[in-house]
Specification:
With about 110 residues, this protein is of the alpha/beta class. It contains four helices and five strands. The chain is globular and about 35 Å long.
């Protein structure tokens, strides 16, 4: 049996966190920890080990890009997926330039 992938999912919308957590954990391949803010995620990273991070872009206080920059500076190379409702090209460029591994736009059917 393969090891479970530990995911930290960060979004300021609690309903999306719950839906995302259920969707990912349904397969049995993921164990998802959620955080309602980037600051909360930073605290969780101080005490936990994660294989990947999924983060919303638009959050109060610290957005997803700022979180990514802090993560790369202090934690290192954890796989990072930026998940956002904004499809602006400059956000994608910022994410990639700061070390995001992948970028997903919210919306559509998550089949």
């Amino acid at each position: 049996m393969a090891a479970v992938i530990r995911v930290l999912y960060v979004d300021d919308e609690s309903n999306l966190l719950e839906i995302g957590k259920r969707f990912l954990e349904r397969s049995g391949d993921f164990a998802v920890t959620t955080a309602l803010s980037a600051r909360e995620a930073v605290r969780l990273l101080e005490h936990g080990i994660f294989d990947a991070i999924i983060s919303d872009y638009q959050m109060p206080v610290m957005d997803g890009i700022q979180f990514l920059v802090e993560l790369r500076k202090n934690v290192g190379q954890i796989s990072f997926i930026l998940f956002t409702g904004r499809g602006r090209e400059e956000v994608v460029i910022q994410a990639i330039n700061n070390g995001a591994n992948f970028y997903l736009q919210k919306g559509g059917d998550p089949k």
